[in-house]
Write a structure and sequence with these properties.
The structure holds two protein chains of two kinds.
Chain A lengths: L4 E3 L4 E6 L3 E7 L3 E7 L4 E7 L20 H14 L8 E6 L14 H15 L3 E7 L5 E6 L5 E4 L3
Parallel strand pairs in A: 1-3, 6-7
Antiparallel strand pairs in A: 2-5, 3-8, 4-5, 4-6, 8-9
Helix pairs in contact in A: 1-2
Chain B lengths: L5 H26 L3 E3 L3 E6 L3 H5 L5 E11 L3 E7 L1 H12 L10 H26 L3 E3 L3 E6 H9 L8 E11 L5 E8 L1 H15 L1
Antiparallel strand pairs in B: 1-7, 2-7, 3-4, 3-5, 3-6, 4-8, 7-8
Helix pairs in contact in B: 1-4, 3-4
Classes of the chains: A alpha+beta, B alpha+beta.
Chain lengths: 158, 202
């Protein structure tokens, strides 16, 4: 792997700048959010599993805040603000939110769709413009986010 | 929930052995050949690490998925690499496949395997622990491993950091069909299983 590529795993994120490329693999019902500041060519990628923490862990364990849209996105935006980027100057691309299995809930209980709408809701309320989306359907996706151009390349295997 | 005591691990491994033993017997009958079942591997791991434990994130995988409903809700999965899924489907449907694609007939055959395996495993567990367990209708998908697995286990991650994963590898004598059988339980279900076993022992 070229060393300007940074792999982002599930429930994790990375902030980078050109010429780095951020990538994440095998997005199913999860949502991957690419945030980009085009003048400075700085961006962030986060791969999130669930829309919202419903309750505290039943066994009292700490749950990774990067697992949930409601806690992960504010955290990533704060990290970008730490390097001097205003949220208004960001644009976002959303990838994922597929519906892979019928037995995992039908209409109204589609985790992929919930992840996408949770991410959209946060971005809109934070004044971050959504540039583009490659979401829904029933196929898994991988993505490469090139911080030189801001282009997000999505690939599938099916 | 960070660690399981040795005795608890033994109990849960025994539970998995009962489940997978029954499941493989059912599969042997179905295909009229012997299946070898490895000793189950038991892990309590963060939801995010489960797919990684199973393989490369982009590796194409065929999964049969069944949700367990009842006293101890959980998830059952059968994992095959797609070539193995096709070999199994060929043997089940007595057809030869040349296109390498699972059609509707193959998929329903694989779902039926899921039904039978999970039915026999769950019956054994329900009997042993005196639980009521019901299984959902099966579903199947072929796609990148992590896309499939993370979708399947996401729900467990809503209320727990770590999940109990019981993994059993099974293969036939000639190793033409090999697959992995998984049972996943959140901490609440894990506690309920342990409590039931302790009650039974004492």
């Amino acid at each position: 792997m070229e060393n300007n590529k940074i792999i982002v795993k599930i429930s994790d994120f990375a902030v980078g700048r050109a010429p780095q490329v951020l990538l994440t693999q095998g997005i199913g019902s999860c949502v991957a959010v690419c945030l980009y500041q085009k003048e400075q060519k700085i961006g962030a990628l986060v791969h999130i599993m669930l829309p919202k923490a419903i309750k505290i862990a039943i066994d009292g364990d700490q749950i990774n805040p990067l697992r949930f849209v409601s806690t992960a996105l504010p955290l990533v935006v704060r990290e970008l603000e730490k390097v001097g980027i205003t949220r208004e100057s960001l644009s976002a691309k959303l990838v994922g939110g597929a519906h892979m299995f019928k037995v995992l809930g039908g209409a109204g209980n589609d985790l992929g769709a919930k992840n996408i709408s949770a991410a959209e809701e946060y971005l809109v309320s934070s004044g971050i413009k959504i540039d583009n989306e490659d979401v829904g359907g029933n196929v898994g996706r991988s993505l490469e986010f090139d911080l030189t151009t801001g282009v997000v390349k999505v690939t599938t295997k099916m | 929930m960070n660690e399981l005591a040795e005795i608890e691990k033994d109990i849960l491994t025994e539970i998995a052995t009962i489940g997978s033993g029954n499941a493989s017997m059912a599969l042997s009958k179905m295909l009229d050949k012997k299946f070898e079942v490895k000793v189950p591997v038991l892990q309590l791991i963060p939801v995010e690490k489960i797919s990684e434990m199973m393989g490369d994130s982009e590796q194409l995988t065929t999964v049969v998925l069944i949700k367990i409903i009842g006293d101890v809700p959980g998830t059952m999965m059968l994992l095959f690499n797609p070539e193995n899924a096709i070999k199994l489907a060929e043997q089940l449907t007595k057809r030869e496949k040349n296109d390498g694609i699972l059609d509707e007939v193959d998929r329903s055959a694989l779902k039926e395997v899921g039904n039978i395996l999970s039915g026999s495993a769950l019956n054994a567990l329900a009997d042993f622990l005196d639980f009521t367990l019901v299984q959902s209708i099966p579903d199947t998908a072929t796609d990148m491993l992590s896309a499939i697995i993370n979708t399947t286990i996401a729900q467990l991650g809503e209320s727990a950091d770590k999940v109990l994963v019981l993994e059993t590898v099974f293969k036939d004598e000639t190793s033409t069909v090999e697959g992995k059988y998984y049972l996943l339980f959140d901490p609440k279900s894990t506690f309920a299983i342990l409590e039931a076993v302790k009650k039974k022992i004492s």
